[in-house]
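Ex. 9. Protein: GGDEF domain-containing protein.
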Amino acid sequence: MHWALWSAPSAVIGYVLAIDLLAIGVVAASFVGVDIASGDWIRFGVLAVGSAIHIEAGREIERLRRSAAEGTPYVNLKGMWTFAGVLVLPPPLAVAIIALSFLHSWYRLRRIAPHRTVFSTSTVVLAAAAAAVCLYAINPGSDLRYAGGLVGLIAVVAAATAYWFVNYALVIGALLLSNPDSTARKVLGRLSDQFIVAGALGLGIATAALLMDQPWLTVTLLITVLGLHRSLLVGQFQFAARTDPQTGLTNTVFWHEIATKELERAQHDHTSLGVLYLDLDHFKAINDTYGHPAGDQVLKAIAAELKREIRTDDLVGRLGGEEFAILLPKTSEDETAQAAERIRRRVAALSITVTTNSGSTTVDGLTCSIGAATYPAAGDRLDVLLLAADTATYAAKNAGRNRVVTAPISNG
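Predicted structure tokens for GGDEF domain-containing protein:
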């Protein structure tokens, strides 16, 4: 399988491998002269379980946030668990928490290539090492239990600052090398994102303090964090994304935003990308026969079926009316056509129960026309791809509807 790292510029390859090797050296050094007590294993278990629950609870949110953050530093609240591990665990167990957290995120989200996950893990390992050096250099003890008074406060703040700075600087370095034409403002990210990082580190300090003195209270902190994560981040993200209220799909504005980023990713990684335009056939007849509320129920049911059919990394949006767009990252021309055909058959097999003024009734016999276009075969710009898919949809309708038409190879 083609691994995108090896197609990157030599400077990027050298930088990534250097960071990874340095992190491996830190991991090896962390095992030297370390004694692990039974209490350390208990704290390790609590942090591992808390991190796993947190990742699972916010999986769908973070998948979309990560897509929207392409080309900028991606931040989340995961640092609360990894930084807490730095403060209260022996180095080998702190490294294990970091590795487990990133491995779990990659397995459940799978939004980035494996080498990028390894690199992200390495940057956090090095950030944790810098934090530990600050903590132990300023504080005479070996963990948070000795961080009392002003000296302890200075040690913890210095450790948090080192953790943030090293991780941020290493990520910025990779972004600058990978995207030399990008603007500094985009690469540095938004200031508000750094407040999220600061909040995660503060929560990590609180988690560590509870683990040392009142470990059972960690459960209440986890509940609090999950509530904040789902209410604040979800609310913020949905407001920015402006999902379609009728179907729950992304609306056309956000779909185009994600499509732009995915096309940039495909161009950078030299991978293909598919776009499908789906138009329901004779949908006006449903509204005329059963009423617009019933038509809305049909649209909602079809949206649910589309979400079930697509992969985790794909994105389906509503363009308006009875038209939908489906984004298929890392999908070849043949795979795009096959996906379109599966969706066409799935729509044709639907039997939807709707509520009308006369009671419940069943709507079946639905069909759709789908136009398929693939980068780079049908075009190398998003507007060209979308026009090709739209034109193919009209061709499908003119050819008798209930069929898939693939856009021809572009001569440009």
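Check your answer against this statement. Strands lie at 273-280, 315-320, 323-329, 351-356, 359-364, 368-375, 404-406.
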